[in-house]
Write a structure and sequence with these properties.
This protein is mainly α. The chain has a domain at about 35-120: 434 Repressor (Amino-terminal Domain), CATH 1.10.260. Helix content is about 55%, strand content about 5%. Strands 1-2 form a two-stranded antiparallel sheet. Helix 1 (about 35-60) runs antiparallel to helix 2 and helix 3 crosses helix 4. The protein is elongated and about 65 Å long. It starts with 14 loop residues before the first strand and ends in a 9-residue tail after the last helix.
């Protein structure tokens, strides 16, 4: 017998002190409400940042790297760590379209691997739709 969740949703175990403070018991899923709220807020913030970065990249104020970084729910420190590049280099590549265009394929490939996209996708932006 395997330890499968009862339904298709993944479950987490949260252990909290029992009333007598000598034992630990498993909490109910309702205790995860704060975590779900914070996670949802973080995802919404990354979506907002990605939308702003897309607007800025189309206006030439930042590189496509900034948009793809936020779209993949990464921040600059996480991207620097994932690529093994210095933070100041990641910042320069994100904020300067000119510096990003001059990157070698080797460095662009490091970004593409970290963001799990192909090179052409990383160097471009999604098409603009008129509504």
């Amino acid at each position: 017998m395997t330890n499968q969740p009862r339904n298709s949703e993944e479950r987490k175990a949260l252990y909290v002190p029992a009333a007598d403070n000598r034992r630990v018991r498993r909490a109910t899923e309702t205790r995860w409400a704060p975590e779900k709220l914070v996670t949802r807020q973080a995802v919404e913030e990354f979506e907002r940042l990605a939308e702003q970065a897309l607007h800025d990249a189309r206006g030439g104020r930042c590189s496509p790297l900034q948009y793809h970084m936020y779209r993949m729910r990464m921040d600059p420190a996480t991207l620097a760590q994932a690529t093994g590049l210095w933070r100041w280099r990641v910042r320069r590549h994100r904020l300067s379209p000119k510096a990003f265009r001059r990157l070698s394929d080797r460095v662009v490939r490091r970004y593409a691997n970290a963001l799990n996209v192909d090179l052409d996708t990383l160097k471009s932006l999604p098409p603009e739709f008129d509504s």
